[in-house]
């Protein structure tokens, strides 16, 4: 499978004031896990790399969350290996990631919002379905 990066822009991408909060970005990371060195550089387009933090692992995929740059509010990196990864950013109201290979689909929800029914919790703001 070819690697891919998807930028998903939320409905509030044009707003300059950020109203959603993500506790995962406010709290200390549970583990200091660096980004894999074999990750393609475009995977982090839109990411504030100073804020990136590992938030967990689910069904073979490692997951990092970061604040976004510019109009992006939050970004998600899911990484199974150098060929199977996805970077997604949103302007607001969270993220629903693309599924990579047979892996899970991830959802990032702002504090106080509910994930999709049947989702497994990966961290405070990240949930997974499938796999």
Describe the structure.
The protein has 131 residues and is mainly β. The chain has a four-stranded antiparallel beta sheet with strand order 1-2-3-4, with no helix packed on it. A four-stranded antiparallel beta sheet has the order 5-6-8-7, with no helix packed on it. It is globular and about 35 Å long.
Keywords:
single chain, 131 residues, mainly beta, four-stranded antiparallel beta sheet, 1 helix, disordered N terminus
Q: Secondary-structure element order, as H and E? A: HEEEEEEEE
What structural class is derived from the secondary structure elements?
mainly beta
- pLDDT under 50 segments (min length 5)? 1-18
- Beta-strand content estimate: 25-35%
Give the strand order, joined by hyphens, for the main sheet: 1-2-3-4
Q: Outline, from the CA principal axes? A: globular
Task: Work out the helix count.
Answer: 1
- Quaternary state of this entry equals single chain
Rg over CA atoms, rounded to whole Å, is: 13 Å
Provide the helix percentage.
Answer: under 10%
Q: What is the straight-line distance between the termini?
A: 17 Å
Strand runs, count:
8
Characterize the biggest β-sheet: 4 strands, antiparallel
Give the integer mean of the pLDDT values.
Answer: 83
């Amino acid at each position: 499978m070819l690697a891919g990066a998807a930028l998903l822009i939320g409905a509030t991408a044009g707003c300059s004031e950020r109203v959603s909060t993500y506790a995962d970005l406010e709290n200390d990371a549970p583990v200091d896990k660096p980004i894999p060195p074999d990750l393609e550089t475009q995977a982090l387009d839109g990411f504030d790399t100073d804020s990136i933090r590992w938030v967990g692992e689910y069904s073979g995929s490692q997951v990092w969350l970061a604040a976004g740059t510019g109009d992006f509010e939050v970004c998600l990196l899911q990484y199974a290996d150098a060929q199977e990864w996805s970077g997604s950013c949103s302007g607001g109201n969270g993220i629903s990631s693309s599924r990579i290979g047979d892996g899970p689909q991830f959802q990032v929800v702002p504090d106080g919002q509910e994930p999709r029914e049947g989702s497994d919790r990966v961290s405070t703001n990240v949930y997974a379905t499938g796999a």
